[in-house]
Design goal:
The complex is a heterodimer. Chain A has a single domain, classed as P-loop containing nucleotide triphosphate hydrolases (Rossmann fold), CATH 3.40.50. In chain A, 37% of the residues lie in helices and 26% in strands. Chain A has helices at residues 40-47, 89-99, 104-117, 133-145, 163-178, 190-196, 214-218, 224-236; strands spanning 2-11, 14-24, 29-33, 55-60, 63-64, 74-77, 151-155, 182-186, 199-204, 207-213. In chain B, strand 1 and strand 2 (48-50) form a beta hairpin. The chains are: A alpha/beta, B mainly alpha. Chains A and B meet through helix 2 of A and helix 1 and helix 5 of B.
Chain lengths: 237, 266
Amino acid sequence: MIVLYAATKKFGRLTAVDNVSYRVKNGEFFALLGPNGAGKTTIIKMLLGFIRPTSGSVTINGVPCCKTQTRKSIGYIAEQHMIPPYLSGYEYLHRHASLIGLSGKTAQCEIERVVETVSMSGREKEKCSGYSKGMKQRIGLAGALIGNPELLILDEPVSGLDPIGIRDIRNIIKDLKQSGKTIFLNSHLLSEVEKTCDTAAIIHNGRIVTKDSIDSIIAQGESLEDVFVKYITELEN
Amino acid sequence: MKMFAKIVCYTIADRMKPKSIYLFLFVSIGLLIITRGCYSADYVINGRHVESIWHVSRIVFQVISMAILLMATMISMRIFTRDQNDGSAQMFLSRPVKRWEYVLGRMFGTWLLTTAFMFILHLTVLVIIWLHTGKMHLGYIGASLICSVNLLFVICAVCLFSMFLPDFISAFFTLGLLCVGYVSDGGYKLLNTEIITVFAAQPVDTTLSTWRVLYPKLFMVQAYADSLITDTEFVSIGLVHPIINVGFFIVFLLALTVFVFNKKSI
């Protein structure tokens, strides 16, 4: 279970995340929605221990996120995922496997599994510098799926993908949801969120504006997009 | 420690990916082989024939050490900024890797690689001497390993400064620190040479201020390495051996780098 309790992150005078508290239960598919600069990526970075909250706490299954043990069961893909250009897709995935303790045949099988899942079979031995944006995103997702993690943190996973890529990733995410994984998604594609997520929160200027099940949020307007625009417009005016 | 070892291995593998490093190594070895004639040249100083091979090889040894210091500065100035820009930092730190394992792994990996590079070049000099004289002077091996302490110092300093300063500035800042030490200690050594003391009209004042005694003694580490080659007695500056002096600074810089990186946002 992900628990943020009065989490605040300040960068100098700027408060990126302001007193945010919420829980994401195990097996829940949660989406964090908000305009650019709302604090979504900052929250994800706190979950991964990349940055520490200025005050409050962020825990995963009761363990503070700054502890490395929390990252044993997390798969993460960043927005416009970067892969070292001097590595091949296979080497990149092998490093992920090795860092979570997989080696030899187990690592090999796991890499083959995730490469197939993201439809990159046959291209994994190529250098990442030659990959398109979409291919990098797929390999990034494959890296996140290595080791079958319990929690997936996806920061704009379909960013830069073509419609077919978006559909493929959506299908992968749906399959992951079926397998009972906890998924924490940051996305601007509200139609995608509407189709896939269980619960969502809208964040604006570092504060959670609303958090509820997707159905309850949609019930406040015609569609998720409608409700989102309504909230943000009201706050900005 | 397992993760630390893995990151050391990955760092070495990453740094060895560009073909330019092999080209640089082969060109350097080639230059040493081309200039092998200098070792057996007939040098006359003040009408006396000098056994050139030992003197020339010592100079070449020190030039190699200095050149690799420069190379280590250039390589290490971008370790963390490059990792941040190409996603390596995120790749490692989104997995169960502690920050100190990542930081030290990257630094030690770079150190091992530059040490190996320097060792190969020093070994080439040793082989050239062996071919000329038929003697295997093993002092070179020890001296080469001693010089690697300086490499670690430079890598630590550049990595620490690169967390606050732009890459090139951190490299130049470190080189500036080295220059001050080399001028200070080199000047002291020079003033204490037999020629200067004999030819000086008045006695030379060689007392040292405290900062000069405490300053990182990279020049004296190289002087110590040189004493291993010539098999002569080493006279240090101050009470502390230069290896201990530089070792202390290395530990301090490592601790500070880990501390600063722990506070850093990824």
